Amino acid sequence: MAQIADSGQCFRVTNISPADWEIIVCNKVLKIHQEDDSIFAIECTREEYEKIWFDYFDMNRDYGLLKKKIISTNDLYLISAVDYGYGIRILKQNLWEMIVTFLISQQNNIPRIKKIIANLCTPFKIKFPTPYDLEKYTEKDFLSFGLGYRSVYLQNIVKSVIKGDLDLNKLKMMETAQAVKFLQSFHGIGVKVANCIALYGLHRVESFPIDIWIKNIIKKRYNNSFDISKFEGYAGIVQQYMYFYERNNPDI
DNA sequence: CTGCAGGCCCTTA
DNA sequence: TAAGGGCCTGCA
Questions:
Q1: Chain center to CA of A251
Q2: What is the β-pairing status of strands A28-35 and A13-17?
Q3: A172: alpha, beta or left, given left = phi > 0 and alpha = psi -120 to 50?
Q4: What's the confidence (pLDDT) of residue A252?
Q5: Core-most of A43, A45, A85, A132, by most CB within 10 Å?
Q6: Angle in degrees, 0-180, between the axes of helices A63-71 and A76-84, rounded to the nearest 10
Q7: Is any atom of strand B within 7 angstroms of residue A7's beta carbon?
């Protein structure tokens, strides 16, 4: 579970104790307990699991097969990364929430991102605020939540959704490249954030966001040329292993 | 005090 | 097209 919680894709997760987590999703709190490699959802009915959590944790995807494919490239760094982050999954999170989250994430650190998201959500308790909820906030409110210069970005995005310029249903229907390009037309969304939204919000596992960590890995270990075409269709998952390995393993 | 954190925008050349 | 400065804010 730690591999998922600490892989930088999910900011409404709390580590209650070494083996316990709480994740907020779909306006519900899921309590998770882990023993060895087994994960148990607490206070969760079978119906809830099948309707919500099975999909959320991307259980329908065969990660074992993807790991075998990655290992078969004989890339020693990736083999270590896959081994280290064995339980990683790309969560299927809400599109709007991911747009807001990764807009805020730029030039920011994870504890602060979590704090800002929590501030935004406070009046709505566990519900993630809709565009209409966020519309009620002023720029001053956003500044007090700690968004800084991203306040204007968020205000504009909220307006765009309400006005219909940013139609989330249409976005979901677009081809990945088209969606990424379209997202970049909004102020505050660049290449990296657009790819994060595609990967985590649209579940396009072929998109490969390049942040400062991935950039450094490519520079340090691949002499500035990393060919993602070897991982056609699932490069985003490869990225997730790389990111988690580089960030969390002090030995490398 | 300076530097930086999962970038982006804007200006120059 | 590429390079470089500035940016909210909090923390080391």
A1: 25
A2: unpaired
A3: alpha
A4: 66
A5: A85
A6: 150
A7: yes
